[in-house]
């Protein structure tokens, strides 16, 4: 028989149980530790490298070297908490979501596990959700989320080269001349903001709508430019990232799985946008000589 539990004033309070990290699927044992943990959704490769430099990540009780390989029987801990990684015969299948975030809604996914993202009504995954090029908290609209760190890294590396659509609700004396000036706008450092298109839809009173298409231009710069001219941007929504659109069939606060065709189109457009373009001199050298 088991002895009875102690009771009364001599029994101290129970210590809080540390939350368990989820069991995740990972890449084969021949991959580096950074790649394995990134594919498992524990953190990005840069985060893992920072954890190693700060001695927060340990393997078998010792801090590993950058680029160390992962073995199935390795005991991995992060800040003293176990990170359970199990080898899988197949590569981890990435889950990718399109999420319609309301302006002002917090998108804090740093510690999100299977239950920490319930306030966003996101589906549960074995790892955690990562945001690709997230909007500032004050803004909203289209967000791309994934539980695959490698996929997030690949997309984040080239998403700046894509064209992006914003919808702005402006409050103030919006005029055609000001919209024309915005098309050739400069940022705070005097560099062009790369405004591709700006179309105004004038409403009644002081509220007007502005559809903007940009490339490599943050929404904060757009807000600052209009605010410096007395136009308050009361709402800014991202409605498109490259070939991925925020459709009317996705209400605020809801998400849906990104279709395979959408994922392929996004990756193809990123690869085409960041592909190196040979200069004219190199192109001339590679051209065959003209016949006399």
What does this structure look like?
A hairpin with a 2-residue loop joins strand 3 (76-78) and strand 4. This protein has 3 domains: 24-87, RNA-binding S4 domain (Structural Genomics Hypothetical 15.5 Kd Protein In mrcA-pckA Intergenic Region, Chain A), CATH 3.10.290; 96-160 and 246-271, Alpha-Beta Plaits (2-Layer Sandwich); 163-241, 2-Layer Sandwich (Pseudouridine synthase). The protein contains 7 helices and 14 strands. The protein is α+β, with helices and mostly antiparallel strands and 292 residues long. The protein has helices spanning 33-39, 45-53, 149-158, 176-183, 219-227, 260-274, 280-286, and strands at residues 24-26, 57-59, 76-78, 81-83, 85-87, 96-101, 130-132, 140-146, 163-171, 195-201, 207-215, 232-241, 244-245, 255-257. Residues 15-29 have low confidence and may be disordered. The chain is elongated. The strands form 3 sheets. Strands 6, 7, 8, 9, 10, 11, 12, 13 and 14 form a 9-stranded mixed β-sheet that branches.
In short:
This protein is 22% helix and 24% strand. By secondary structure, it is of the alpha+beta class.
Oligomer: single chain
The overall pLDDT, averaged over residues, is 79
Total strand segments? 14
Straight-line N-to-C gap: 103 Å
Class from secondary-structure proportions: alpha+beta
**CATH topology (level 3) name of the largest domain:** Alpha-Beta Plaits
| Total of domains | 3
Helix content: 10-25%
The CATH architecture of the largest domain: 2-Layer Sandwich
Blueprint (SSEs and pairs):
Layout lengths: L23 E3 L6 H7 L5 H9 L3 E3 L16 E3 L2 E3 L1 E3 L8 E6 L28 E3 L7 E7 L2 H10 L4 E9 L4 H8 L11 E7 L5 E9 L3 H9 L4 E10 L2 E2 L9 E3 L2 H15 L5 H7 L6
């Amino acid at each position: 028989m088991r002895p009875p539990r102690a009771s009364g004033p001599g029994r101290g309070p129970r210590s809080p149980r540390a939350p368990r990290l989820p069991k995740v699927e990972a890449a084969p044992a021949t991959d580096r530790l950074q790649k394995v943990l990134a594919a498992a959704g524990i953190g990005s490769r840069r985060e893992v490298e920072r954890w190693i430099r700060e001695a927060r990540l340990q393997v078998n009780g010792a801090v590993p070297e950058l680029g160390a390989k992962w073995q199935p029987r390795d005991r991995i801990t992060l800040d003293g908490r176990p990170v359970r990684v199990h080898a899988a015969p197949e590569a981890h299948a990435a889950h990718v979501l399109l999420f319609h975030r309301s302006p002002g809604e917090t998108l804090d996914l740093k510690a999100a596990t299977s239950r920490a993202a319930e306030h966003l009504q996101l589906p549960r995954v074995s790892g955690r959700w990562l945001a690709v090029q997230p909007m500032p908290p004050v803004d909203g609209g289209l967000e791309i989320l994934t539980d695959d760190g490698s996929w997030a890294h690949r997309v984040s590396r080239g998403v700046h080269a894509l064209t992006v659509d914003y919808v702005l609700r402006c409050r103030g004396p919006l005029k055609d001349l000001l919209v024309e000036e915005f098309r050739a706008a400069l940022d705070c450092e005097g560099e062009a903001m790369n405004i591709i298109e700006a179309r105004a839809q004038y409403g009644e009173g002081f509220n007007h709508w502005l559809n903007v298409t940009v490339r490599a231009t943050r929404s904060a710069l757009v807000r600052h430019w209009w605010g410096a001219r007395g136009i308050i941007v009361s709402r800014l929504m991202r409605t498109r990232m490259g070939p991925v659109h925020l459709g009317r069939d996705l209400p605020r606060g809801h998400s849906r799985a990104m279709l395979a065709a959408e994922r392929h189109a996004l990756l193809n457009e990123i690869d085409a946008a960041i592909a190196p373009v040979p200069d004219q001199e190199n192109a001339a050298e590679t051209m065959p000589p003209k016949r006399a």
